[in-house]
Structures are given as C-alpha cells and as structure tokens.
Amino acid sequence: MPNTPIAEQVDGYLAALAAHASPATVAAYRQDLAALCRFTQQRGITEPSALDATLLRAFLGAERSRGLASRSLARRRAALSRFADYLVKQGELADNPVSLLRTPKQPSHLPRPVDVDALARFLDTPHDGSPLAIRDQAMLELFYSSGLRLAELAALDLPHLTANHVRVIGKGSKPRQVPVGRRAHQALTAWLTCRRGLAVESEVALFVGQRGARLGHRAIQKRLAQLSMVRGLPEHLHPHRLRHSFASHLLESSQDLRAVQELLGHANLSTTQVYTRLDWQQLAESYDAAHPRAKRRPDGS
C-alpha cells in the first residue's frame, strides 16, 4: 500500500477493525481500501480530508468501468463507509460522505434447488460404511434437514446438538435453534459412535477430519462436490444449494414464509423471499384459494 496519509489512516483503521472482526472481513476490507489508495495516489491525492462524495463517487465509477461486479461494488461502498466513520472519529472528516452515494443494485442470483426426488435418491444412495462416509452422510442430512449455512455447520460443537434440535450461531452472532429431522438424527447418531475413534481428545467440534481436528469450510465443500459425482447427481452440489433446496421444498409443502424465515435465521422477510421461490402456478392457486376477492361465486362468475 502506498505511503501516504490516506494509507496510514487505512492501516490504523484495519488495525482497529482486526480487534473485533474476522480475519476474512479484515482481508476483504484491506483489498477494498487498497484499491482506494491506488486510485487517490494516481490522482496525486494524499490527504484524508479530500475524500468527499464527488471523489468517492468517481472511485466507485472507475471500479464499475473496469468490470467490478455489483456485489463487489457494494462491498467497496461498505468498506468506504466504515472507513469514513473511522475518519470522522479521528477528526479527519466532518461527516461521512458515503451516505450521499447510492448502493449498487444487487442482482438476485437464485441458486436452482435440486429436484426433491433427485435429492432423495442422492441422500439414500448406499455408502461403504467407513467412518468418513458415515460422517459425510451425517453432514448431508443435517444440511438438508436444518437448512444450515456452511459456516454454521462447520462451527458446530458437540454441546450444540440435542436429540431433536441443533443450536447454531448465525450471521451477526445471532443464535437460533432449528429442528433436526428423523433421518438426520439417525445419521448423526451413527456418526457420533464413529467420531470417538477419530477425534483427538480435546476436540469439541461435531465434525472432524482424518486427523481428528475440526473440518474446515473448504474440506466440507470439496466433500459435497465429490459426493455429487460419486453418487451420480447430474449437477454440482454445494452447501448453499442444499440450504436453498431445504427452504424451497419446505415452502412448497407448507407455504409458510414466516416459518421458513425463522428456520433460515433471516432478520428480514425480504431476504427469505430471495432465497426461496414458489412457481407462478402455485402462487396463483394459493391466491385463488385464500384471497376473499379472488373466490368465484357459486354461479361461476
């Protein structure tokens, strides 16, 4: 990063951020703010006081022009806003200029849920009965049974699991309890028996690898991708796809959007509406059946 007063403030901000944010968040913001430093250095701008709305709008515009996706632009803007808040506290800025900038609109990329029958065949495919295969089956069943995020499943410890539910820590460190279905419970019971022979003595993680330590995010993603090929699922499988399938299948059968929102751990219903979808025919049938102004009269009119 260039040696300018802006870069020095960025270093100070990232050091403060590291005290309470995850390493991944710090790394992402470091990348975002390094781009800002390059942009200002190319224009001979060095002082933090020059970071006004016009300059920052030009920076985001330049990032868009070089092909940065909407999601990445939104993260750039979030990093700028938090950095500007820091500069206000440091007395470098009178107020946060990022509040004057529009957030780039996010495209609604919906992962296609796996067909319910195809997913049932995939989950019911026999395995070789090895401890790792039993572990993989338990992970698959729990993903689909409870709609967990990858990070939530990877972070599970033994005390988080009971006979009929699992306690997870979701986004924003918000805890929630979600039910564990019968098939997932059976798979987890089998895994807990095998786990004793794999886990090192001090390890509390629910899912461990061959060396007995907690299974990481990448290892879980890799196992799901491998299992989709080995079991003949004709499409790529990843944790979010299982979560989306859980939500879609549950919504199709229950039509209870609020319940699905609670199970997914979404703060806002609009987020659930992005993750889950009903086809138009089902929506039309639900409307015809429920809306008082949609019901037909006995004479058919």
Shape: elongated
Query: What's the story with the biggest beta sheet?
Result: 2 strands, antiparallel
Low-confidence stretches: 278-283
Q: What structural category characterises the helix and strand content?
A: mainly alpha
Structure annotation, total helices? 13
Helix content: 55-70%
State the strand order across the main sheet.
1-2
Q: Helix and strand succession?
A: HHHHHHHEEHHHHHH
Cα-to-Cα separation, first versus last residue: 72 Å
> How many strands appear in the DSSP assignment?
2
Using only C-alpha atoms, the radius of gyration works out to 24 Å
How much of the sequence lies in strands comes to: under 5%
* Residue-averaged pLDDT: 84
Folded structure, characterized:
- By secondary structure, the protein is mainly alpha-helical.
- It has helices spanning 5-18, 23-42, 53-65, 70-89, 116-124, 131-146, 150-154, 182-195, 217-230, 239-254, 257-264, 269-275, 280-290, and strands spanning 165-169, 175-179.
- The chain is elongated, with a radius of gyration of 24 Å.
- It starts with a helix and ends in an 11-residue tail after the last helix.
- The relative contact order is 0.08.
- The model is unreliable at 278-283 (pLDDT under 50).
